[in-house]
């Protein structure tokens, strides 16, 4: 008896070993690092692929939605060119926020996310875009096709979180949001991040 083609004998690295999805950039796979209301910042360790505690949140801001990244993407030169106020890409996989109606309170899960827009963010002169998506098979969000269909209040929460999640008392803010963009531009950013990844990792 042989193993099925999709079987992994060992745990794949979430960044390099998982697939981006056959429908990218319209629908992508997302690896979730943080769940809503997380008071601790978690990030995938680039060497091992396991989730690492980065730091407790510096302020009272809590993650408003599922937060993670899109596998086999990289924010480098091509992503940087789409962010005029940035000097370079941040060298990380492309971040993604996924909105759902039902709470998902576990991290290190993979889900299919339908892209509706994004937040163009510059962090210490580095392009650090946040793609915004909805859970692909969530009936509650079925009619949401673009960022303009999203509740302004929820978008404001996302903006506030990313503007403050690295804020440290006594220091000037070095993160800024330069644009909120829709589905069409979000797909361009994802395509650029795929090309950046392929150039760097093959």
Descriptive report:
The chain is 18% helix and 30% strand. It is α+β, with helices and mostly antiparallel strands. The protein has a single domain (27-201), classed as Inorganic pyrophosphatase (Inorganic Pyrophosphatase), CATH 3.90.80. Strands 1-4-6-9-7 form a 5-stranded mixed beta barrel. It has a two-stranded antiparallel ribbon with strand order 2-3. Strand 7 (110-123) and strand 8 (126-127) form a beta hairpin. The protein is globular.
Q: What are the salient characteristics of this protein?
A:
202 residues, alpha+beta, Inorganic Pyrophosphatase, 3 helices, 10 strands
C-alpha end-to-end distance: 32 Å
Q: Shape, please? A: globular
| Alpha carbon gyration radius | 16 Å
What is the fold-level CATH name, i.e. the topology? Inorganic Pyrophosphatase
Summed up, the helix count is: 3
Q: How would you spell out the order of helices and strands? A: EEEEHEEEEEHEH
Helix/strand-derived category reads alpha+beta
**CATH architecture classification name:** Alpha-Beta Complex
The number of domains: 1
Mean of residue pLDDT? 92
Assembly level: single chain
Estimate what percentage of residues fall within beta strands.
25-35%
Tell me the major beta sheet. 5 strands, mixed, barrel
CATH class assignment: Alpha Beta
The amount of helix comes to 10-25%
Poorly predicted ranges (pLDDT <50, ≥5 residues)?
Answer: none
Task: Give the strand order, joined by hyphens, for the main sheet.
Answer: 1-4-6-9-7
What is the CATH superfamily classification? Inorganic pyrophosphatase
According to DSSP, the number of beta strands is 10
